[in-house]
Amino acid sequence: MSVELETPNQSRTAEPRLRLLPMIIFSSRWLQLPLYLGLIVAQGVYILLFVKELWHVSFHALELTEEQIMMSVLALIDVVMISNLLVMVIVGGYETFVSRLDLGGHPDEPEWLGHVNASVLKIKLAMAIIGISSIALLRTFIEAGNLGSGRGGYTEQGVMWQVLIHLTFIASAIGIAFVDKISDKGAHRQE
Question: pLDDT tens-digit profile of 43-84?
Fold first, then answer.
């Protein structure tokens, strides 16, 4: 009994040949690559912002009030959350819309990457935006103690609008998740 081993090239099925127009349209997804590379540069800018804020709070800790330190720490958390959002968009967007990363079981592969699609990415992004908005709102509430004193940087109307915008983010995320759940049920019924 003879056993033939498949070489890596033999095990792959032949890729279908596309006509010119479909090939151009399908290849246009690579136009997003500069956008993702630009987001990586933005990630670098956020690293600089983080280091600047960390430097400030570290070297002026004895001069700052507890409220100022708390505001600086919240600013650091905000930068980290925005940076996490950038990673999700860069990695998830590239994987979903441009090309597979083929990490081959790399030990550092994000757990969520294996089942990312446009729907999952939208929900993750919505949740990240709510988290970022929550930190910004918390910072506003801490500074809101100065409302009416002329020392605060916020007005009552400004705080109200920030709360309404945050609630809009929450309602949007719930709406996205609800539509996704309905779409999932419809897809399972069709199978």
Answer: 999 999 999 999 999 999 999 888 888 889 988 998 998 998
Q: Could you tell me the residue range of the domain that residue 53 belongs to?
A: 31-113
Could you report the per-residue pLDDT of 79-98, keeping only the tens digit for each? 998 998 898 889 888 888 88
Angle between helices 118-143 and 66-87 (to 10 degrees): 170
Express the helix, strand and coil content of the chain in percent, nearest 5 each: 75, 0, 25
Note whether 125 and 85 are within 8 A (CB): yes
**Closest by Cα among 121, 116, 158 to 136:** 158
Residues 152 and 146 sit within 8 Å (Cβ to Cβ): yes
**For the residues of 67-95, what is the DSSP string, one character each?**
HHHHHHHHHHHHHHHHHHHHHIIIIIHII
Q: Are residues 144 and 188 in the same domain?
A: yes
Q: Do both 108 and 123 map to the same domain?
A: no
- Within-domain flag for 77: yes
* Verdict on whether the full-model pTM lies above 0.85: no
